[in-house]
Each structure stands twice: as C-alpha cells, then as structure tokens.
Amino acid sequence: MAITLLSSPLQGFTDFRFRNAFHHFFGGIDTFYAPYIRLDGKMVIKSSYQRDLNPENNATLEVIPQVMTNDADEFLFVVKYIQELGYKELNWNLGCPYPMVTKQGMGSGLICNPEKINHILERAHNETDVVVSMKMRMGYENPEEILDVFPILDNYPLKNIAIHARIGKQLYKGGVNLEAFQKCVESTKHKLYYNGDITSVTKFQEMQERFPSINHFMIGRGLIADPFLPSMIKNNTTEYPQNRWQIFSEFHDTIYQQYDAALSGPTPIKMKMLGFWEYFSQSFSNPQKTYKKIKKAGNKKAYLQAVAEILNSERTIRS
Ligand SMILES: Cc1cc2nc3c(=O)[nH]c(=O)nc-3n(C[C@H](O)[C@H](O)[C@H](O)COP(=O)(O)O)c2cc1C
Q: Closest Cα partner for 310 from 273, 257, 264, 259?
C-alpha cells in the first residue's frame, strides 16, 4: 500500500523558510500543513501568516493552511482569505493542548463541545465550497470525548481527520494511546491519518503494522529531530546517505541565513536556532553536549564556530 507522509505543523518551526529548505535538501514529505492562523478577535490576518501562505513563498510545495478558532465567523473569514490565495482546503485545529487556548474552548478544549463543532461545520459547508479537514487530539480530559464528535463529523464530507493519539491534558507527556486510536479507527466513516511520536523508521513500521488500514502518517517533531526520516521511511531503509552531515550542514546554513536576514537583532536569531537545536541535537551522538555547546555560543561567530565543530566531530565519530 502506498504511504503518504505529511508534515505536521509546528508553530515557530515549520514556516515557509523551513518547508522550502526541507523539501529541497531532504524530501520525503508529500504535503506540508502550515502552522495555524489565529485571529484573536479581530478580522485581520497578521502579516507573518500572510507571508507564510503567500503562494510565491510556497511555489514548489503542496501546502494546506490551518486555522484555530471556535467561532464560525472567524472560520468563514479565514476560508475566504485562503480561497483568494488559491487554496482549496482548510484544516481545523482541535488539537492544541495549552491551557491558554483550551480554557477559551479552542484547540483540544473544543472537542467536548460537539454542538459548537457542528455549528461551525454546518456554516462552512452551507456558505462556502471549501474542503475541510480536521486535526484533533482524542479529547482534553479523556480519549472518549472524540467518540461523541464522530457522529457529527460523519454528516459532513470532510477530507480526513488527522488524530494525534494523545489527550490535551497530557500536553506532550506520557505515551500515545494506541488502544484509544484503534477505537477511533472503528468509530468513524472518515479517513483517519495517524499522528504522534513517529521518531524513527522502526517506530513508523510498528505503527504501520498495528494499523494496517492507515496509509497517511503525519510527522512533527521527529522530522526536525531527524530530517532524513521521511525519505528513509519512503525508501524503506535505515541507512543514511553517505554525505549525511554535508547535506545537513547545507540545510542548516540555508535556514540560518534566511532567519538571520528576517529577524533583527542578535537575540531572536539565537533563540530561533536554539529552538531548532533542541530537536536537531537529538540525532547527534551526544545530544546534551551538542545542545549545551550551541546554548553557550554568545554571538554569531561563536555560534557558527560551534556548529562547525559539532558537525566535524560527528563526521569523525561516524566515519
Ligand atoms: C512547538 C510545537 C508547535 C506546534 N504547532 C502546531 C500547530 O500550529 N498546529 C497543529 O495542528 N499542531 C501543532 N503542534 C502539534 C504537532 O503538529 C503534532 O501534532 C504533535 O507534535 C504530535 O506529533 P509528533 O509526535 O510527530 O510531533 C505543535 C507541536 C509543537 C511541539
């Protein structure tokens, strides 16, 4: 069965700069979800979201925009915006676990409110011709919440439901709940995509064996931690390319230069790259030492020196 791999959106990481560089250097991802658009009460699309979705910035990528809202008017406003840009599909985020969001009844805090979900889907389908897909956790308090939402979702021609197999209350802690995900597979007519903790080819194969009816898999953090992962999954191999660190180095320099040009002042670029290294470091021989070395680098010159040393030592260790 052919496998489709999707890049799960990571706000602050998988913007158009990252997506383009990723696609160019590593490949393996069929479709990228853009991080969510949030309106905060005003019917205005922030310029950072505009840049991220601008078709010129995504010319060689398959991208699906995402919205996080619990308001039908906001949803319809974003539909109009993305349709004007030429997008056909809008993904709806019912997964965000952070209390600031869930306490307002958004993200995974909306899963316990099937009536509201119904109202928004009803208006979206009656008033527009947008294709809607969902990205959900299985609940906020417990993984049965989603089971009460499925009968509502079954009434709409959704493209798919991507499920991160955790509940909101867990944040990112604990494991994924595969029994509860199996229950989801049995409880909806919609096409499900699996999401959660795919961090290696072996992990992917375990999921594939456990859920033979699933052929769409979304990878989030695992893709930043090991950008070769999607192409290795596609090629069914655990072997890295021989020039692994050269490719990584070129990818790193590409995103570094772009973020450096886009962000002003020394602190934002440092924080940006440190965020990436929290994940990157996981596929280095000594993750803690690697991360510490990057963290210690006080200025640009020291940062680039640290990166060069890390990559050199990796080339030596692994050769
Ligand atoms: C820093 C960060 C930002 C995220 N931003 C988004 C987002 O914008 N939209 C969304 O649907 N999920 C978001 N997620 C959730 C991921 O897309 C994904 O569902 C989750 O990390 C589980 O998949 P993974 O184990 O492959 O990372 C975010 C997760 C993290 C850690």
A: 273
